[in-house]
Design brief:
Blueprint lengths: L6 E9 L3 H8 L5 H4 L3 E10 L2 E10 L2 E12 L4 E8 L4 E12 L5 E11 L4 H27 L4 H4 E10 L3 H9 L4 H4 L3 E8 L4 E9 L5 E11 L3 E8 L4 E13 L2 E12 L14 H29 L1
Antiparallel strand pairs: 1-7, 2-3, 3-4, 4-5, 5-6, 6-7, 8-14, 9-10, 10-11, 11-12, 12-13, 13-14
Helix pairs in contact: 5-7
């Protein structure tokens, strides 16, 4: 029995995929934002001996939280133990275990255990944590099942690309343009409207209506994590129908004559929506070109206007 004040949850799912595939996804947290809906961004630091430290930003009950966890990775047993090193209220402490076990039919059973304490053991805090944990665990397990069972097709559906530009200005000036997204409807022709908010710790939420080449608009919602004058990482939490997941970052690198700015993207196509692409016989390859052109076009336009803004003051 857990001690008074410590609570437990258990979630599990059977997956028709090899154990090494399932475990490989769990053991590579940097890719979680692309595959797990609640996860926005992960920073990983290796500590040696199978131990690592993660800083994680994720959504829960409609809020963005971040925490630091320590993990022990055991590929032989296919387990990952984790314990939050720094928790965010109402969580006082949280830990748990991922475990992958083989089934007789060639599939696996994935079990996710959590144990937690709430600040002051407050009943409302306990309920909030349990609800967020159950919701996120269900989403993570469901996403992981779909991911692992379609692993052989992901090479066609997931792709990355980047655009870059040199700007003859201080990194702070360029960062200011990229950071102040609430001003984008005034500065970027392809941004038709924006709802924008930012927390004191540099987490931004955006609901942006983007104008396409044909004049139509579509809505995306994003969470961004800001690292002043260095980079802004983000995840679209509401995407166009053709896209299952989209993560990206703006990276600023100081060089001798100004700053090199890179716009990086990783996209997972929504396989079920390929038929919506104009033209006949849409394939992942042709759809990648359509998506690359649309997203890359907006990025290049933003970079060009950031250059003009920073260089002219």
């Amino acid at each position: 029995m857990p001690p008074v004040g410590r609570h437990q949850t258990r979630s599990e799912i059977d997956i028709a995929a090899p154990a090494d595939v399932v475990y490989g996804v769990i053991a590579d947290p940097v890719r979680w934002p692309q595959f797990f809906a609640p996860t926005v961004h992960v920073e990983r630091t290796g500590l040696g001996g199978g131990h690592e430290r993660l800083r994680i930003w994720a959504t829960g009950n409609g809020e963005v939280r971040n925490w630091t966890s320590l993990r022990k990775v055991d590929p032989d047993q296919r387990t990952v133990e984790f314990r939050q090193e720094v928790s965010a209220p109402p969580v006082r402490s949280m830990g748990g275990t991922w475990s992958v076990s083989s089934l007789g039919d060639g599939g696996v059973r994935l079990v996710l255990l959590h144990d937690f304490e709430a600040v002051d053991d407050d009943p409302e805090g306990v309920e909030w944590i349990r609800r967020a944990t159950d919701e996120n665990s269900g989403l993570e397990l469901g996403n992981l099942k779909r991911l692992a069972e379609s692993w052989d097709r992901l090479g066609e559906l997931v792709f990355s690309f980047e655009d870059s530009i040199h700007i003859d200005a201080a990194p702070e000036a360029v960062y200011g343009f990229l950071h102040d997204a609430g001003e984008w409807p005034k500065r970027l022709p392809h941004v038709a409207a924006m709802e924008f908010d930012e927390t004191p710790d540099g987490v931004q939420t955006m609901a942006m209506r983007t104008r396409a080449k044909d004049g139509s608009t579509h809505l995306t919602e994003s969470v961004r994590v800001c690292f002043p004058a260095q980079r802004i990482v983000y995840k679209q939490v509401v995407t166009p129908a053709l896209i299952a997941a989209h993560t990206g970052e703006w990276v600023l690198e100081k060089v001798d004559a100004g700053v090199l700015v890179r716009s990086r993207h990783t996209v997972t196509l929504n396989e079920k929506a390929l038929d919506s692409v104009p033209g006949t016989a849409a394939t992942p390859a042709t759809t990648r070109e359509v998506v690359r052109d649309a997203i890359g076009g907006n990025s290049r336009a933003t970079l060009a206007l950031a250059k003009e803004f920073a260089e002219t003051g």
